């Protein structure tokens, strides 16, 4: 069902909703199918979204990707969106459950491509926290060799100082997570709407949504997405990334959620590895956290940059 209050309503292709059970979770999924066929069909995109993200803010982006010849598959992660445990409870995510879900949905989407007799070109497209998951997956994921290319929007490698809760808060969260029964405890996590979006319509939409449904994370979620990003800056992690795997990072210079310095440092470390290729960072002056809901000139350039990158690696 479309959110008619969203800033943009699809004019053509609309998402197909489906609940897919896996282990103890019922995952809500959304698929946008391109009408292009034959040589005009470009591949299938698996979206790994950001923290407390909603697919409704990507209606325009998904429409543009399908027009470019891609099928797009989006799933609400464990503890996110409409996805719930089989017992109806919300659930919570950790590194283990996040990577297991990526394993499952890579295999699922490759199976769909095979059933539809389409080329097995599967791209990962990520936003924020999803970027931290995908970039780590590129180093240690079970099915990482099945990925054609990855495009990341403002990946969570380092939180920006304006969003980072502080060293003492982090240490407290990490200490509390050593107590198993406290890992699922919830903490409020305010994110400024004008840090996320640059387009006023989306700023207002997100601000209204957050006022009606304040954002909360579990302690283990907070711990894992912080540490997961930092791991990418260690040689034990970035040196394991396939030297030929195409990776694009798109990051706005006015992103006050995730620090662009993290993306720069990560790219520098990748480039320091002998033989590393097909890694690229594009910076967007004045771009906020989610480039696809920024001003039209930033939005359209970032979408086209992703399309061009994926088309480069067919």
Q: What structural keywords apply?
A:
MAG_DAG_Lipase; alpha/beta; nine-stranded mixed beta sheet; Hydrolase_4; globular; Serine aminopeptidase S33 domain-containing protein; Rossmann fold; two-stranded antiparallel ribbon; 314 residues; AB_hydrolase_fold; 11 strands
3D structure, described in words:
It holds the Pfam family Hydrolase_4. This is Serine aminopeptidase S33 domain-containing protein. It comes from Eeniella nana (Yeast). Residues 42-292 form the Serine aminopeptidase S33 domain. Strands 1, 2, 3, 4, 5, 6, 7, 10 and 11 form a 9-stranded mixed beta sheet that branches. Strands 8-9 form a two-stranded antiparallel sheet. It has a single domain (16-312), classed as Rossmann fold, CATH 3.40.50. The chain has 314 residues and is α/β, with parallel strands linked by helices. The mean pLDDT is 93. Helix 3 (129-140) links the parallel strand 6 (122-127) and strand 7 (149-153). 42% of the residues are buried. The chain has 10 helices and 11 strands. 37% of the residues lie in helices and 18% in strands. Helix 3 (129-140) packs across helix 7 and helix 4 crosses helix 7 (219-231).
